[in-house]
Amino acid sequence: MIIVKSAFRVWNVLLWLILTVWLFAISVFFLLMNGILPIIFLGALFLFMTVIMIFGYLRKYLAVITFSSSYIEVRYWLGLGISRQYNNADIRGYRVIDIKGNIQSNQVLFLLTNRGKRLKISEHYHKNYKDLRDYVYNNYSLIEITPVKQYNNSGVWRFLRDEITDAFSRT
Which of 52, 71, 111, 136 is paired with 86 by a 20 to 30 Å CA distance? Predict the structure, then answer.
């Protein structure tokens, strides 16, 4: 029996897809220009950013998560990927991070499994985040609340490091 199923904020996902396609097009444009080293470097940089967008966000944040009474089903890649199931007994608990930016603030909830794998539920991408969060709060134990992470001009490099590490992790 399905209790809660995640749903995406269509405009946020659509803007993310447009940005990814735009980054890829710019990287191909720069890489195809004739041999000027700074242009090739820019192309490689944009291509690297595209890979981070695809393997970081599309794989990790844009996942359809379904909570049922005995298991959690996760489908990565905008819900188009292979379905993975986690038993409720495998979930150790959850961790909450509040991310404060210059324009808006968001909350990210991580479900931690016994094998260390994490499922991410982001307020920015899930329109029924409050329902998902309430279900997690009521059914799993709190492991950690991380204080507000401020990402402004001084925190951009730390943010990039966190996202690059996460994009290439196996969890």
Answer: 52
**What integer pLDDT is reported at residue 37 of this predicted model?**
67
* Per-residue pLDDT reduced to its tens digit, 101-155: 667 778 888 888 887 767 888 887 788 889 999 999 998 888 877 766 555 555 5
DSSP states of 105-156:
EEEEEEEEETTS-EEEEETTTBTTHHHHHHHHHHHS-EEEEEEEEE-SGGGH
- How far apart CA 161 and CA 143 sit, in angstroms, is 23
**Long-range CB contacts for residues 82-91, cutoff 8 Å, separation at least 24:** 86/111, 86/113, 86/117, 86/119, 88/139, 90/114, 90/115, 91/140
| N-terminal to C-terminal alpha carbon distance within the chain | 27
C-alpha–C-alpha distance, residues 86 and 73, integer Å: 6
